[in-house]
Input
Amino acid sequence: MLYEIKENERLFPVTKSYLHHEMDRGSQIANVKRIRIHDLRHSAISLLIEMGFSALAIADRVGHESIDITYRYAHLFPNKQTEMAEKLNLEGGERFE
Output
């Protein structure tokens, strides 16, 4: 709905078969293990977490029915807690000096 795709249009210009072929080809060229296409979704979610987006915003973006699904990535959030604490300490210190 965000991209106003009509019922008979494709969101992506490539087919699943083409994407599989390109994943195979790219992994051979890079000499790395081929991952599943679905694993790209996990990589994208991990990147969004690293970029600092909230679990709620990520869940909405990727279409998780429940935020609990997004919290399965909770192991990636702890360093964000440390960053938040450090920023709050800096902010508080500046106000009270």
Observations:
- The mean pLDDT is 81.
- The CA atoms of residues 5 and 12 lie 10 Å apart.
- Residues 16-96 form one domain.
- The helical segments are 16-30, 37-50, 55-62, 67-70, 78-96.
